Amino acid sequence: MTQTAAESPARRQRAQIKERTLRTDQWWRYPLVTFIIFTAFLVYATWAIFDTSYFVSPYHAPFASPCLATSCPEEARLFGFAPFGDWYTLPPGLLILGLPAGFRFTCYYYRKAYYRGFWLSPPACAVGEPHKKYTGESRFPLILQNIHRYFFYAAIVIGLVLAYDAVKALIAKPAGLGTWILIVNAILINLYTLSCHSCRHITAGRLNHFSKHPVRYRAWGFVSKLNAKHQELALVSMFTVMGADLYVRLVAKGIVAFPFA
Question: Of 46, 58, 48, 100, nearest to 234 (Cα)?
Fold first, then answer.
């Protein structure tokens, strides 16, 4: 039997190019900027977890909300409850920060960003990577990326909690600068969550006839429009949540004291 060109060993091998890349543009800027921004965010988040200045009435720092232990100020507890009781004495952020962090870590956009910026796999399109082999997301630990949709459900809850915190601040201090910072952050966090690819699939991904499900079709259309801006919402919401969290902590520490803080 004659072997076709598509089945020949030569066609099954990678192109033998000695140069790392033939690109002449500054392709390295994207992974470098990504590395700097994400590293700064991780450093801040680590500091925020252990910082105790996360609440000043009526503002609640997003990285420590909801507060679920009796060690939290009474006003900071979600609906006044503290299900973790007295036994939990560690920072409240450790209880919940893993949920939104897991959602972002497994997000399709963030995968692309940190695969390029941290693992250089690959650092850019048409640029050779330093790794000798590629196994994709079929093995541990990257196979855990498949639980992204379950983190999505948790992220929905966290987004609603942040919206609740913003509404509480609006009722208590409608003219406060912190109130509007929390409101803008809550809106962008929820828009980013709803723009998720998993949300689009859950909304109407398995429907065969949109005409038989007009409500789900409209919801799918709305989510699809958000999905087109998923990358932008991912980046902007990362800055707003960090900015809102830092603002509340600065007010709680007395470092920021505007007339309408």
Answer: 100
